[in-house]
Design a protein that fits this description.
286 residues, D-Maltodextrin-Binding Protein, domain 2, 2 domains, six-stranded mixed beta sheet, five-stranded mixed beta sheet, 10 helices, Lipoprotein_NlpA, lipoprotein, palmitate, membrane, Lipoprotein
Length: 286
């Protein structure tokens, strides 16, 4: 009997201790949750991946405007065209700003991304650069043209050479879908070399590689050049290849992302783009 009473006392003490621990855990969890919620509301962070220039420069200009609206903009810079979409898909970014619509569509098709275009911000006219000739018509027979391995840029490059009267594409092929295999008429037998990473082409130009190099304006602007002055040929300003803000499909109605697009479409930011790049980067509001 004495042993049974002792056992009963121990059991009561264990039950009471268990109850106290349970209450502590519940209160701790509640306290932790409320703290996290409070922290999120006070420190809203919008993480946007961007090319260094002009994208990140434009975002830096928008940063204080967003700050006044209670949004802390964090800019993550990238020097390639692969990682920003990968990071967005993996949840490391809220949005990114570096690509145009055709490239986005190609990435979605090839990699299965579920993304949303939430607004076009600016156009960077793609240009042809050379240290050997002053115009495309000065290119010699068999001249080598160094081109990005990004297929979404190919119709833009082909369009420049078509506009200059140097090549023609096959009948029935839409220029926006054209590849270099669709060239039907090439009197000067120009050689288009398509194995280059977009980020390397500026280096190729500096090293005087090839006879001419097709380069996206963001790389040119980052090196202090002006496409309108330094290119021997430039993409038409009517080009549909505007750079866009992209987020995930499930995040397309995110209020902070919408506010970002609204700010980037504001007169203050559009005037900034026009004044800073003098036509090398063109503001778009759509």
């Amino acid at each position: 009997m004495i042993n049974d009473k002792k056992g009963e006392g121990k059991m009561k003490k264990f039950t009471a201790l268990f109850a106290v621990l349970a209450v502590i855990l519940v209160l701790g969890a509640c306290g932790s949750g409320s703290k996290s919620s409070s922290g999120d509301s006070k420190n809203k962070e919008l993480i946007v991946g961007a090319s260094s220039s002009p994208h990140a420069v434009i975002l830096e200009k928008a940063k204080p405007i967003l700050k006044k609206k209670g949004i802390n903009l964090k800019i993550v810079k990238y020097n390639d065209y692969v990682l920003p979409n990968k990071a967005l898909d993996e949840g490391d970014l809220t949005a990114n700003y570096f690509q145009h619509k055709p490239y986005l569509e190609l990435e979605e098709k090839q990699k299965g991304y579920k993304f949303a275009d939430v607004g076009a911000i600016h156009l960077e006219p793609l240009g042809i650069y050379s240290k050997k000739v002053k115009s495309l018509k000065d290119l010699k027979d068999g001249a080598q043209i160094l081109v990005s391995n990004s297929k979404s840029d190919w119709p833009r490059i082909i369009g420049i050479f078509v506009d200059e009267g140097l090549i023609k594409v096959k009948k029935g092929v839409k220029l926006q879908d054209a590849t270099f295999k669709d060239i039907s008429d090439n009197p000067k037998n120009l050689k288009f070399k398509t194995s280059f990473d977009p980020g390397y082409l500026m280096t190729a130009y500096k090293n005087n590689e090839g006879d001419a190099v097709a380069i996206n304006s963001n790389f040119v602007v980052a090196q202090g050049l002006n496409p309108e002055k330094d290119a021997i040929a430039l993409e038409s300003k009517k080009s549909p290849y505007a750079n866009i803000i992209v987020t995930t499909e499930k995040n397309k109605n995110n209020k902070d992302v919408k506010e970002l697009v609204k700010v980037l479409h504001s007169k203050e930011i559009q005037d900034f783009i026009t004044d800073k790049w003098k036509g090398a980067v063109l503001p778009v509001n759509k």
